[in-house]
Amino acid sequence: MSGPAEPAALLREAARFEQAGQLAQAAGAYERILAQRPQLADCWYNLGLLQRKLGRFDAALASYAQALAHRVRQPEEVHLNRAVILADHLRQEAAAEAELRTALTLNPHYLPALGNLANLLEDLGRRDEALAAYVRILELEPHSFESLARYAGLRRVERADDPLLGRLRTALAAPQASAAERASLGFALAAALDSCGEYAAAFAAAQSANRESRASAPAAPRYDRRAQERLIDELIAAFPQPAPRSAAAPAPATAQPIFICGMFRSGSTLTERLLAQHPQVRAGGELDLLPELVRARLAPFPAALAGASPQTLGELAGEYRAGLARLFPGAAYVTDKRLDNFLYIGLIKRLFPEARIVHTTRDPLDTCLSIFFLHLDQRMSYALDLLDTGHYFKEYRRLMAHWRSLYGEDLLEFNYDTLVANPRPAVERLLAFCGLAFDAACLAPGARGGAVKTASVWQVREPLYRRSSGRARHYRRELAPLATYLGIEPLP
Question: Do 283 and 275 meet the contact criterion of CB atoms below 8 Å apart?
């Protein structure tokens, strides 16, 4: 009878599993090693990495703690990894900050921890501390171009002779800057030029930044207009009529989701912050729960939905609610602001027949222009070209018209321009739609703390303002082709 496998053999087995993408099996091999040799700190570290990739976040934290307890090399890296899990997956920002500061106590020059701390401080709205962190990074590494771009994003530039503009242009011309870094610098320059009224130069900088963004990811697919049209056709065909409200059992006593969807830069983050001021509501941010369920259980979507039984749909609804309960224990309502959930409204209404969905809207030209100035993931390839953005917008609007025809009573069109022009009646309508009593705190979106992980991190912390409404008028000439494509009257 053979005994347990030797650790060396199990290590080779774990490496083979990981190389083959069989992460659960690789984790199992490390667990067998550690059952025999719990003192192997590097194995605890490797197990933590695998558990994080598998979404086993609490287990990963425990494995990293074991690595630290057994004196792993470079413990600052372990504290950084723990911080990322705590901030990005478990929404425990205070604990994440403590881990990062521990990492920096161990190694004050550890740039990855400094960068993550600066980003976290930004998300938490602690501008001065974030600025100081970026200054420290740039002292240690003057060619940290991403940090310079983030630093510029925290500064409001009001004059064309601000030295920061020259600093950004110098960095853009640096031969060692990569295409990805030039993209980040270019978007920062575009925003700074826009803020000081240099609109033609701002648009040119945004154009260049989008070109660099595309160049930084040559393998990313180009936007395929016909493929997007087919997707919208398939979604409309898959949901020809409303889902019966009787299809689901009564909701359990867990957090109720409030879905917020729409285009990027349509006021969704502001809408979530307004709701989050209500004592019954927690801000969930851009949750991956629904898209992950679709990828895991309903691929290819929407075709696979035809074979989904009521039992399967009930299980999916239960898994979604369990995810909310894990992330936001004790919450009565949680906002899910994953914007592309507009693609899944038909599914949402199958899973949660009583769901309320807030659809954020804004002037079409303002929306598309703001996307053009935004550094999005290159997989959102429609954002890299204004007319592609216009096409995506038209297809999104076509799908939303279909959802309105099915679920008009459960869809609230919440318009950014109307909100900032006259906030109180808009907020009253929003709260009533969500089944919430009016609370005057909801008129002050920046009052309550909490992390904001979007490009609107600073705007939503200010009092409601109107300066972003009608922004497109500064770019009349540049936006003329888009206005024509969208069938909009030329800007005055």
Answer: yes
Check whether domain 225-486 has CATH 3.40.50.720, yes or no: no
Residues shown for the chain: 492
The gap between the terminal CA atoms of the chain, to the nearest Å, is: 87
Arithmetic mean of pLDDT, 162-183: 97
pLDDT tens for 360-389 read: 999 999 999 999 999 999 999 999 999 999
Domain boundaries defined on the chain = 143-219, 225-486
Residue 460 has pLDDT above 80, yes or no: no
pTM of the model: 0.86
CA distance linking residue 200 with residue 197, whole number of Å = 9
Contact between 421 and 469 under an 8 Å Cβ cutoff? The reply is yes
The pLDDT tens digits for 405-450 are: 999 999 999 999 999 999 999 999 999 999 999 999 999 876 554 5
